[in-house]
Amino acid sequence: MRLRSGLTAGVLTGAAATAMAVVATRDFRLRQRTVPVLRDPAVGPLRILHLSDLHLRPSHRRLPEWLRGLRGLQPNLVVVTGDIIGHPGAIDAAYRALSPFLDVPGIVVGGSHDYFPPDWHNPVRYLTEGPSRRAHDGPEMPWRDLRDRVQETGWAWPINDWVECEVAGHAVRAFGTDDAHIDRDDCTMLQQPPTGQLAILQLGVTHAPYRRVLDALTQAHCELILAGHTHGGQVCWPDGSAIVANCDVPLNLARGLGTYLTPEGQRSWLHVSAGLGTSPFTPVRVFCAPEATLLTVI
Predict the structure, then answer these.
(1) DSSP 246-276
(2) Nearest alpha carbon to residue 230 among 209, 216, 211, 212
(3) Residue 259's domain is classified under what CATH number?
(4) Which of 200, 186, 164 is nearest to 297 (CA)?
(5) 171 sits in which H/E element
(6) I want to staple 90 with a disulfide (CB 3.0 to 4.6 A). Which of 56, 154, 179, 236 is the partner?
(7) In this structure, how many other beta carbons lie within 10 angstroms of the beta carbon of residue 20?
(8) Where are the beta strands (DSSP E) in 14-121?
(9) DSSP secondary-structure letter at 39?
(10) What's the Cα-to-Cα distance from 83 to each of 90, 109, 202, 229, 230, rounded to whole Å?
(11) How would you label 203-216 residue by residue, b for 16+ Cβ within 10 Å and e otherwise?
């Protein structure tokens, strides 16, 4: 009788914990951080809204509604670091989610879930085998449709290339890489920055913060690098620190703002967003709330 009672209590406790982890995926948070990085601080501050890993599906309503409330932040620039869609029918949902910000400059890069439908992984494999590897033998997602729509509004979607945009009356230059998690990154063009107006800020924008990409962007003098992909660990220790990152970024840099150091000793600021969504196969978050971040660059 005691054994049966203990099993029942264990099952109920596990069910309650799982329910809480699912509910936590809708506990959206706004983080605010200050980055002292402008080449000429007299022209700042600039407000950069960093969004990542929305993993939108056609049924999603709560996240687009929450994002509309962020329009009052009046960002000068919006940067979206990939995995915007998580379903081939989510293009309209993604456009609606981004539409409150399309009247300000924006930069987008793609992530693996923008290119290929989500697939199931045993979550334990992240602990035992390291970063997941995707097979790319299925049909692509309709990411080009989303890219065309946001580019029509004036947003940039660089693929392993530089872009320049005017932000609050000043030139900002960014190098956007394709997703390193699926080996689509190519930093060849990093050595050929555009000539023209002197930029007050040079950004690196990437989905998955693999060290090879972070090293290249830092060596190219990108003062601030923005990335996503890690979900901040998604299931974290009670202090919020990541258990896994699903890439080779140091775990202490898998979430939030920190300083990245190359093997040669060069430094850049790195902000890795914990993101706003999850894969439909792992719809839980533990000690890692979904987030957007307003970076005030001074």
Answers:
(1) SSSS-GGGSSEEEEEE-TTS-EEEEEE---S
(2) 209
(3) 3.60.21
(4) 200
(5) strand 170-176
(6) 56
(7) 13
(8) 29-35, 46-51, 77-81, 106-109
(9) S
(10) 12, 9, 23, 8, 11
(11) bbbbbbbbbebbbb
Strands 201-205 and 224-227: parallel
Give the chain's domain count: 1
Spatial contact of 187 and 162, defined as CB atoms under 8 Å apart: no
Helices in the chain by DSSP H: which ranges?
2-23, 62-68, 91-98, 112-115, 124-128, 143-152, 211-219
Instruction: Please count the CA atoms within 13 angstroms of the CA of 114 that sit on its side-chain side.
Output: 26
Q: Which residues pair with 33 in a beta bridge?
A: 295
Dihedrals phi, psi of 197, to nearest 5 degrees: -60, 140
Q: Which two tokens stand for residue 252?
A: 């202490």
Please tell me whether the peptide bond between 238 and the residue prior to it is cis, using omega within 30 degrees of 0. no
Please write the tens of the pLDDT for every residue from 219-261: 999 999 999 999 999 999 999 999 999 999 999 999 999 999 9
Instruction: Give me the amino acid identity at 251.
Output: L
pTM score: 0.90
Question: Is residue 198 within 8 Å of 171, Cβ to Cβ?
Answer: yes
Domain range spanning residue 156? 2-297
What sign does the dihedral 103-109-115-118 (CA atoms) show?
negative
